[in-house]
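WARN retry 2 of 3 for item q-0093 after timeout on previous attempt; input resubmitted unchanged.
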Amino acid sequence: FNQSKEGILLVDMNDYIIDANSTFLKLFPNYNNRLKKNKLYDFLSVNPDVKYCLENNCQNTFSLKIDGET
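OK item q-0093 returned
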């Protein structure tokens, strides 16, 4: 989970965010301390590009260099 280069967000059956891996938190650093206990809808409402991709099955690949690594 935390070793993945993919950003991963875990959501429970009631759509509450329960965890996020380190890559996800590097992609969305504003959520480091306030992500948990929020609903997925709240995250998507302030990140419409992510919502759009979920709704339209975007097949884009994004890369982010962190500390010189992709």
